[in-house]
Design goal:
- It is a single chain.
- The chain is mostly helical.
- Helices cover 62% and strands 5% of the residues.
- It contains 20 helices and 6 strands.
- The protein has a two-stranded antiparallel sheet with strand order 1-2. Strands 3-4 form a two-stranded parallel ribbon.
- The longest helix has 36 residues.
- The protein is elongated and about 100 Å long.
- The chain starts with 14 loop residues before the first helix and ends with a helix.
- The mean pLDDT is 94.
């Protein structure tokens, strides 16, 4: 295929350079956006009297036929083309003649690709948002069934204080709500139309940028033609959003991996979401969760690549910016794959309530409640802390827990202890008393679940 810019050159491009320079193998996924943008651009040119209505009709029909043939499989993209823009323009000209050559009036590939990428990523962000909402819904649905399922909460991977499984899952749901808000913010900032910026300095033609911006669903036209073609902050911001989502998915996957181990056995994954070993017949491996954890590094790496790629570029467009697409496209694909796989894996897992409670009964996770018991009877907290610390050391020496420590041992430590200490440190009571907003008490978690549902419902459209 002849290059559209070939007039300046006397030699054919070296085939190796052509392959190196070409982006069609990955930017071909923006074909629909490219055609949609061109339809709006042609309509604007005709409205402004820059091209004739007849040429606009030919361009419109030609572009629509190309899109139909691409979607229907009747037309294959020529992978020797320089990029998707040049392929579509060449195909259009081949179909309708000189009218096709008028489409690029008052437009550059610089503003064309900036437009296509914004439109494509706007759509991708919407799809990812819908998936994250589904993931949050799944977490909340599971949580609503486990508001009384007691488990140990951890700090430093050491059993710390009693919570519920619902409380733990809602923590991730809260993260997902913030992920959704970040995606919305990214789309809001992305939603400025660069079309009409041309190469970098606008155009001498009397174009209507507000018209094309409105036709393509943008809030407004970009305010500066240099900025319109030369920044990819919207790509970097989406890559950052996806990195944070991936971190959240990775942390949840790490806990799933631990929870389904024999050391925890808090959950069991459905057979459809686990694999076996080629040599150890007893194994049931959480490979899916491990892959999600591993793929987070890939998404984070793309984010860093985009930041480094852009950090030293002068205005306006530089070919380095072609590197944005493979990175952000793969990040979008990876996050969508991970979230869509995680949702059914969570929905089908079995929760082992008894094992969670047994784990909670060990590790002295009611020690703070024991200290609070003394504080409520008038002892300063730091004094109570030291008293309970001494009792924990005693239990450790004797192989006991605070629940099984005899009352006389309590009374030796402080005469403030009485028989009601055992009720005070019963795990379910410890949880039920943590009624502060955002706490693990069933009524607090139920209120949080309702709040989460309202927040998520407000983001569905």
């Amino acid at each position: 295929m002849d290059k559209m810019w070939a007039g300046r050159f006397n030699k054919q491009l070296d085939e190796r350079v052509n392959d190196f320079n070409s982006s069609v193998r990955f930017d071909c996924r923006m074909a629909e956006e490219d055609i949609t943008g061109s339809l709006a651009h042609a309509a604007m040119l005709a409205k402004q009297g820059i091209i004739s209505a007849e040429d606009c009709d030919k361009i419109t029909q030609g572009l629509k036929s190309i899109l139909s043939d691409l979607l229907g499989g009747a037309l294959a993209i020529d992978m020797s083309a320089e990029d998707i823009h040049m392929f579509i323009e060449a195909e259009l000209t081949a179909r309708i003649g000189d009218a096709g050559k008028r489409l690029h009036t008052s437009r550059s590939r610089n503003d064309q690709v900036a437009l296509d990428l914004r439109m494509y990523l706007r759509r991708e962000a919407a799809e990812i948002k819908a998936l994250v909402i589904s993931l949050a819904d799944t977490l909340i649905d599971i949580a609503s069934k486990h508001t009384h399922t007691v488990m140990p909460g951890y700090t430093h991977m050491q059993r710390a204080q009693p919570i519920t499984f619902a409380h733990h899952l809602c923590a991730y749901a809260e993260m997902m709500v913030r992920d959704i808000k970040r995606l919305d913010n990214t789309v809001e900032l992305m939603n400025e139309c660069p079309l009409g910026s041309c190469a970098l300095a606008g155009t001498t033609y009397d174009i209507d940028r507000d018209y094309t911006a409105s036709e393509l669903g943008f809030t407004r036209a970009c305010g500066n033609s240099l900025d319109g073609v030369s920044d990819r902050d919207f790509v970097m911001q989406l890559a950052s959003d996806l990195s944070i989502i991936s971190v959240h998915l990775s942390r949840l996957s790490e806990e799933i991996i631990m929870w389904c181990s024999w050391e925890f056995k808090f959950i069991e994954l459905d057979d459809a979401y686990a694999t076996g070993s080629s040599i150890m017949p007893q194994k049931k491996n959480p490979d899916i969760a491990e892959l999600i954890r591993g793929k987070a590094g890939r998404v984070i790496g793309h984010n860093v690549s985009l930041l480094v790629m852009m950090k030293g570029l002068p205005l306006a467009y530089d070919k380095d910016m072609q590197e944005d697409k493979e990175a952000i496209f793969d990040s979008c694909d990876t996050v969508k794959l991970c979230v869509s796989t995680l949702i059914p894996m969570l929905a089908t897992m079995t929760v082992n309530k008894d094992n969670m409670l047994k784990a909670g009964n060990k590790g002295f996770i009611n020690a703070t409640d024991c200290a609070d018991y003394l504080v409520k009877k008038g002892m300063p907290f730091r004094t109570a802390y030291k008293v309970v610390g001494t009792l924990v050391a005693l239990c450790t020496d004797k192989g006991l827990t605070l629940d099984t420590l005899p009352l006389e041992e309590y009374k030796k430590a402080s005469d403030m202890f009485d028989g009601d200490i055992y009720d005070a440190i019963e795990l379910i009571n410890c949880v039920n008393r943590r009624r502060s907003a955002g706490g693990p008490a069933p009524q607090a978690v139920e209120a949080e679940i309702e709040s989460l549902r309202v927040a998520i419902d407000s983001k569905r459209h």
